[in-house]
Structure formats: C-alpha cells, structure tokens
Q: What sequence folds into this?
C-alpha cells in the first residue's frame, strides 16, 4: 500500500516531467509568436489570425523533432515507476 508521502512524490515527479516535456514546444511557440508580433508591429498588419498558423506549424515541427527525446524520457520514467518502484 502506498502512503500519502509516496503518492505526493509520484504526483510531483509526474508534473515536473510533464513540464519538462512540454516546455520546448511552448518556448518555440512563444518565440515564434513574439517574432510574428514584431513583424505585425513593423508592417502595421493587425490580423489576429496571422499568428496562428506559424505558431502551430512551429510547435508541430518541434514535437516531431523532439519525439525521440520525449519518448525516451517517458519510457525511463515509466520503467522506473512500474518496474523498480523507485522514481528517478
């Protein structure tokens, strides 16, 4: 039976892993959004939907490139949690 402290540790490690895995794609989306906003400010184009397509495209491209890294992190975490019972 898992005590409350172990359950809190599992949730904490899971949330940190989710933050670590999602942060590169979120950062890329933020950088692309800032660049598009700067281009809009310089050219005075105020179309709100203009930022959507480049940000989504960049984030999907980043997800595809980072998929091996994401998969290895998730496999390491799952193996450590289910096979050994010890968190990394």
A:
């Amino acid at each position: 039976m898992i005590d409350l402290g172990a359950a809190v540790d599992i949730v904490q490690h899971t949330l940190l892993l989710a933050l670590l895995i999602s942060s590169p794609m979120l950062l890329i989306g933020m950088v692309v959004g800032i660049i598009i906003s700067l281009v809009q400010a310089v050219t005075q184009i105020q179309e709100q939907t203009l930022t959507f397509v480049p940000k989504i495209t960049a984030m999907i491209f980043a997800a595809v490139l980072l998929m091996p890294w994401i998969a290895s992190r998730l496999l390491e975490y799952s193996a450590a949690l289910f096979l050994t019972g010890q968190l990394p």
Notes: Residues 4-84 form one domain. Residues 4-43 form the longest helix (40 residues).
